[in-house]
Write a structure and sequence with these properties.
two-stranded antiparallel ribbon; 76% helix; mainly alpha; Four Helix Bundle (Hemerythrin (Met), subunit A)
Amino acid sequence: MNCKRIIPDAITSCNLICGSIAIIFALHNAFIGAFVFILAGAFFDFFDGLSARLLKVPCPIGIQLDSLADDITFGLAPAMMLFSWLRPILGWWACLALIMAAASALRLAKFNVDERQHNSFIGLATPANAIFWGGICSLPISVLAYDWMAWVIIGLSFLSCYLLNAEIPFFSFKSFKKQKLIICSFIVGCLILIGFCVAKAIVHHHIEFAFFSGAACILWYVVLNLLLAIGIKK
């Protein structure tokens, strides 16, 4: 057996394990801990494909394993975070949040067979969606001052399920050479948002605001891509 082939799959497995731990944290209402492990999973998700390319050991099984791991870490884990976060208000109606896991699975299956998505995305990528909801759920439930706001959050989760599978182009860092200005604008915007959220966390002594910066950056990413899509259609 070529030992090099084991390395990318081992990294992918670390992604899956991080997602599983994130689910455990979510079930115990430890949302920041869950978000940290989702971010750790994203770290491993980036390096599994990179390691396969560097070691020149592409493997069809690795592609399938990657999708399975991604649906745990970026589909089920954020869905469980949202379920646990909203359950004190919505009761078992919070199970509606689990639709996100199914929408993420569909998104990943489509990605595996879509030849258009080598250097960009059609639909919101599952890691981006997970980071958005991880940031939202890191906030204390007290931010939902009224019960109806929990239903608004459920509505937003349905919207994110749509964006995951919509025929809307989203840029990737792989297309940096072609879209330097757009990607640099995105990075600058992210730095501003992160700086603002971290400053607010320090001033108000609430670390949750620092983690919310992830949601703010993904929201900026979605808005920027929607504006680009509207511009292309015109």
